[in-house]
Specification:
The complex is a heterotrimer.
Chain A lengths: L5 H14 L3 E5 L24 E9 L2 E10 L7 E3 L24 E8 L1 H6 L4 E2 L1 H11 L7 E5 L7 H5 L1 E2 L2 E2 L3 E2 L1 H10 L4 E3 L18 H8 L3 E4 L12 E5 L9 E3 L2 E6 L4
Helix pairs in contact in A: 5-6
Chain B lengths: L31 H8 L4 E5 L21 E5 L3 E10 L5 H4 L4 E8 L4 E6 L8 E8 L5 E7 L10 H4 L9 E4 L5 H12 L4 E6 L9 H5 L4 E5 L5 H11 L5 E4 L16 H9 L1 H17 L10 E7 L10 H21 L5 E7 L17 H14 L3 E4 L1 H12 L1 H10 L2
Parallel strand pairs in B: 5-7, 8-9, 8-11, 9-10, 11-12, 12-13, 13-14
Antiparallel strand pairs in B: 1-2, 3-4, 3-6, 4-5, 6-7
Helix pairs in contact in B: 4-10, 6-8, 7-8, 8-9, 11-12
Chain C lengths: L14 E12 L6 H16 L8 E5 L8 H8 L5 E4 L6 H14 L5 E8 L5 H7 L3 H6 L7 H17 L3 H15 L13 H6 L2 E3 L2 E2 L8 E10 H7 L3 E11 L13 H12 L8 E3 L5 H10 L8 H7 L15 H5 L9 H11 L12 E10 L4 E11 L1
The chains are: A alpha/beta, B alpha/beta, C alpha/beta.
């Protein structure tokens, strides 16, 4: 009797587990719509194009049997992926654009650090190294080459509070500079995923370096995922993330569908 | 005495809406000289450049010396009403449903006789003040106003066929975030508009200037982003049948020409807001307005575009913006033709540099948002079509009429 | 500058006018103008018992012939004239056609000149004619209430009333007298008597013009033949003599509003050339698109002083059997206005009166008839005017 090879067995087991409902699929993607906010920058700078959709035909004179739309947006609109070349610190790295990133990186495990309570109290809350270490006490060290997803419950907010613009700019939570260095250099993570519009805090321009998440992550060849949702449905450890950006030549990022595979039935 | 205009009753939703009709719009090429003077609200008469004789109706040669150098020259608008008649029967469908209709023969101080529409406060033998106005067909007609202001003068029924008075009308101001948009809200409230709908793009962005206005009664702030077709269709579905006047104040001004501003991102944004914004707005709102061109005493009547004077001549310091404005201006002419069957008029308001952030480095004279808003309301009250606000706009208008090539060279050097 | 000398007008000795033809009018017609003109031409041929080839001169007046003009009608009707004219001058068409044809015959350019006016009236013809009548009408009149000639003449009439003191009763008197005259004319469209009361109480059309101040647009044709006296004798058709004619266009251009016409310029020549005075005139046919225009003609042709027509009207009866017989067939006001034929009706009736061929009442012992034409209000006034004195042969 021939022994089946390992890979088919694993995939077959995966398919079976999914069919039996032992593995859930959680959609971490915001719906692309023209109303979804984009990053707000000073107006004299280049701006991130919002998502726009125009009907080409809808079973009418413009196309009698078919419905389709033309869409336009930035590489950084909606739920999106940031590649290393997105930031000046990562501009010289090899394989730093979405079309050259090794595809293996698009499927990776994830851990979820829940900072929603702190974020609810303080919209400017910055994740600290201590908080990470406290998390590691419960769940073990953050595994290498895994996504770190910051749960803030920010996606549950109405748009005005989600963007949270004040007289001095946006106020949204994110990682502090020290936490980033710890995750990248001590834990060798694959990337950071957040629910907010940027991987940095809303006030990240005032950090040193400015926009530390972008600077540190991309300067070290790591990735970012932004505008995620449903992180509250993921366990602290053990989920698997499918996050494959569009294969844009020399692209700095891409809107994408982010799916998480989670073992166990919905609670 | 002019009967004062009454706030219109609410429309019976079970009643048929009267379809718009037009007075005859055919005119000779030479008569179109009057169209321009009417569009800009000036009073001029056809005049021979060779012998100075004034004539009317417009001719291709002077009836005194046969010179063909006929120009429009400023003339006294005053005259005497020699005779009047009340027309009660006409085979023309437009006037038939507006009978009785008064016209008269006015002897102008310039010596010519002009058949004119009459204001109800003028009578044979009395002095009158003549003005050229555009009628619903878009062509110039003479209207005899009382020489001196009379009570409720603007409310005259025949005058209101020519003017676009915002009184008791419902207005959509498309961008309440802009300074011009906010000034328009105030100006239309002062002009007695029944409702002012004000569009606000990306309402999640703060707009503290609006806090005072929000308390204004009759003002409804609604989500509207001219670059986002969804917000336009949703708003049109909600209020489209109630908008009598659209005032498009949406703008996207950035300095720079073609070379010193690499890429086309900003140029595209200027087109998205300016040209495409107009197209999107028009596709959603204009068809209903065209249908409602004769809907009661306060029918849909006007579409106002706030444009830069540099739509007419490119200012390289704002070269890409000027080009986008030119596209919007050109599109406005298409819209004007397409709205004509409804008798809905397109009013283009050309401003010089505004006294706003994006013209911070531009030296005065600059145009304040309040000036623009007042000019818009004034243009509607007078039924103008091409309006020039501020010294820079007036100056460029005159220079363009004189020598467009010189304007091109001169603007190249202006910063 | 050279002073241009004028020479005395030639007389029309030996030139006569004959064969008054009327194709009975219809309110609306489904036929083309060509049909109406064809009926008139056939009536000429039948009356004179001539061949088509004998017609060597043709003048046509019509507003509804488009896209044709007279030249197209030669092939249409199988004619080969050696003199041709197209005279769409509305109410002045008849006088102008007479003048041109008379000189053509006199000079030998043709021998039998048929002058025809014919127009059709479809249901929407009137509106179409109004909206594109002239460039000035298009540019400066029609967009003002689109009242057509009613509105334009209302302005002239209201000014005339203010200036002369004329009353609606005065205009009514002319209209009522014309209706009385029309009652004996078989082809008049109006067959009921008109009283002054019904004139006064008629509905307003364009103040001060009321219903019975207006002509009724209709379809119809009128024609006459200009030829030499000897030819008319050979053909055995009765004829009248052409004593004198005048024609003047755009007179008094600087009058701010019309209250006189070109007759006043040339009136003395009209009587002088004929060698008669106004007192010798036995009847008058004015162009009566509105009674006010008839009154203007009575003044400008010298039957009374300028501005005195109201008094003159009050002093005369204007009926065929009374004083100053006027528009003896009923005129356009009672017969109808068949486009350019309205500019022929007075001339045709004058020929009838002077040749004993009336279809209605005859002015007793009439020897001299005065006929006047007026037309073409392209902006605010009628531009064309003309008049003729015809005499019994």
């Amino acid at each position: 009797m021939a022994t089946p090879s390992i890979a088919p067995t694993v995939l077959a087991q995966l398919v079976l587990a999914m069919a039996e409902g032992k593995i859930r699929i959680v959609d971490l993607t915001q719906t692309l719509s023209p109303d979804f906010p984009t990053l707000v920058l000073p107006p004299e700078l280049g701006q991130c194009a919002p998502f726009r959709i125009e009907e080409v035909s809808r079973y009418d004179a413009r196309g009698p049997a078919w419905y389709w739309n033309n869409i336009t947006m930035s590489e950084h609109t909606g739920t999106h992926f940031d590649a290393p070349v997105h930031w000046v610190s990562g501009r010289h790295l090899p394989n730093g654009a979405v079309d050259s990133i090794p595809p293996a990186d698009f499927i990776a495990p994830a851990v979820v650090i829940d900072m929603s309570a702190a974020a609810a109290n303080n919209a400017d809350h910055e994740l600290s190294v201590d908080e990470i270490k406290a998390w590691e006490k419960c769940h073990g060290p953050v595994p290498p080459r895994s996504w770190v997803l910051l749960r803030t419950d920010w996606f549950k907010r109405a748009t005005v509070d989600y963007v949270n613009l004040k007289d001095d700019g946006p106020h949204t939570p994110g990682p502090g500079p020290a936490a980033l260095n710890y995750l990248v250099h001590e834990r060798n993570i694959l990337g950071l995923g957040v629910e907010t519009i940027g991987t940095d805090t809303g006030q990240g321009a005032h950090s040193n370096p400015p926009f530390p998440a972008h600077f540190v992550l991309h300067g070290n060849g790591r990735y970012g995922l932004q505008c995620l949702m449903n992180l509250d449905q993921l366990p602290p450890t053990g989920s698997l993330i499918f996050a494959a950006p569009l294969k844009i030549r020399n692209g700095s990022g891409s809107p994408l569908r982010v799916l998480a595979l989670v073992e166990g039935r919905p609670s | 005495m002019t009967k004062p205009l009454q706030r219109p009753k609410r429309k019976d939703p079970t009643k048929r809406t009267r379809l718009p009709l037009l007075p005859q719009g055919a005119r000779s090429r030479q008569a179109q000289l009057l169209t321009r003077t009417a569009a800009e609200g000036r009073f001029e008469l056809p005049t021979c450049n060779a012998c100075g004789a004034v004539h009317y109706p417009p001719r291709d040669a002077c009836p005194k010396c046969l010179s063909d150098t006929i120009v429009m020259s400023p003339a006294s608008p005053l005259g005497t009403l020699l005779a009047e008649t009340t027309v009660r029967v006409s085979p023309d469908v437009f006037f038939r449903e507006r009978m009785p209709w008064r016209i008269g023969t006015v002897l102008m101080e310039a010596g010519v006789s002009v058949v004119a529409h009459l204001h109800c406060d003028v009578a044979a033998g009395q002095p009158v003040r003549l003005a050229w106005h555009l009628d619903r067909s878009g062509q110039a007609v003479a209207f005899a106003w009382p020489e001196q202001e009379t009570p409720n003068m603007a409310d005259d029924i025949q005058a209101r066929e020519l003017t676009l008075d915002p009184k008791f009308r419902r207005v959509l101001v498309t961008d309440a975030r802009s300074a011009v948009g906010q000034a328009c809200i105030r100006a239309f409230a002062e002009a007695g508009s029944a409702i002012i709908f004000a569009g606000l793009a990306e309402p999640w962005k703060p707009c503290s200037d609006l806090d005072v206005l929000r308390k204004m009664s009759g003002l409804e702030i609604m989500t509207l982003d001219v670059t986002n077709g969804d917000t336009i269709t949703e708003l049109a579905a909600e209020i489209g049948a109630r908008v009598d006047i659209v005032v498009n104040t949406a703008e996207h001004v950035r300095p720079g020409g073609i070379l010193d501003r690499p890429g086309i991102t900003v140029a595209r944004e200027e087109l998205e807001t300016g040209y495409l914004g107009l197209v999107r707005l028009a596709q959603a709102f204009a068809p209903v307005m065209r249908f409602r061109g004769a809907d009661g005493t306060h029918a849909a009547c006007a579409w106002v575009n706030v444009l830069s004077i540099f739509a007419q001549a490119n200012w390289p310091a704002y070269g890409a913006f000027s080009a986008a404005q030119a596209a919007q201006l050109s599109a406005s002419h298409a819209l004007r033709a397409e709205l004509r069957p409804g008798g809905v008029r397109v009013v283009n308001v050309f401003t010089g540099p505004l006294d706003t952030n994006w013209f911070q480095t531009v030296p005065p004279p600059k145009v304040t948002p309040t000036q623009v808003a007042k000019a818009i309301v004034d243009a509607l009250k007078r039924g103008l079509e091409d309006v020039y606000v501020g010294d820079v706009a007036e100056d460029l208008r005159a220079r363009l009429a004189d020598n467009p090539k010189a304007v091109e060279r001169d603007l190249a050097n202006e910063r | 500058m050279v002073a241009i000398k004028t020479t005395p007008r030639m007389t029309y000795d030996g030139v006569v006018v004959a064969m008054p033809i009327t194709v009975p009018y219809q309110r609306y017609s489904i036929k083309a103008a060509h049909w109406w003109i064809g009926r008139a031409l056939q009536a000429v041929v039948k009356t004179a018992k001539i061949r088509l080839a004998d017609i060597d001169g043709l003048a046509v007046s019509s507003f509804t012939l488009a896209p044709d003009s007279t030249i197209g009608l030669t092939q249409h009707f199988g004619l080969s004239p050696r003199w041709l004219d197209h005279i769409p001058l509305g109410g002045a068409s008849g006088i102008v056609a007479l003048r041109r044809a008379a000189r053509a015959v006199q000079s030998g350019d043709c021998s039998i000149a048929v002058c025809v006016a014919g127009d059709t009236n479809h249901v929407d013809s009137f509106r179409r004619t109004l909206s594109s009548f002239s460039r000035f009408a298009q540019d400066a009149v029609y967009p003002y209430g689109a009242g057509g000639p009613n509105a334009s003449f209302a302005l002239i009439m209201s000014h005339y009333m203010a200036k002369t003191g004329a009353t609606r009763e005065d205009f009514g008197k002319l209209a009522v007298a014309q209706r009385t005259n029309a009652l004996t004319v078989p082809h008049a469209l109006f067959k009921k008597p008109l009283t002054l009361e019904s004139y006064l109480s008629a509905r307003a059309i364009s103040d001060p013009i009321h219903l019975f101040d207006c002509v009724m647009p209709c379809a119809g044709a009128e024609a006459f033949v200009v030829t030499r006296a000897d030819i008319a004798k050979d053909l055995g058709v009765p004829y009248a003599r052409i004593l004198s004619t005048i024609e003047r266009h755009n007179a008094f251009a600087d009058d701010p509003i019309q209250w006189r016409g070109g007759w006043a310029v040339d009136r003395d020549e009209l009587y002088g050339m004929a060698g008669v005075s106004v007192g010798d005139v036995d009847f008058v046919q004015t162009y009566d698109d509105y009674p006010v225009i008839s009154m203007m003609q009575l003044e400008d042709l010298g039957l009374c002083e300028k501005g005195a027509a109201p008094t003159f009207v009050r002093a005369n009866t204007f009926t065929t059997d009374g004083s100053c017989p006027h528009n003896t067939c009923g005129g356009q006001l009672s017969v109808g206005q068949a486009g350019c034929a309205g500019g022929y009706i007075g001339l045709v009736e004058t020929i009838r009166q002077l040749t004993g061929q009336t279809s209605g009442a005859t002015v007793p012992d009439a020897k001299i008839g005065l006929v006047s034409g007026f037309g073409m209000i392209t902006y605010d006034r009628g531009l064309a005017s003309g008049a003729a004195l015809l005499g019994r042969a």
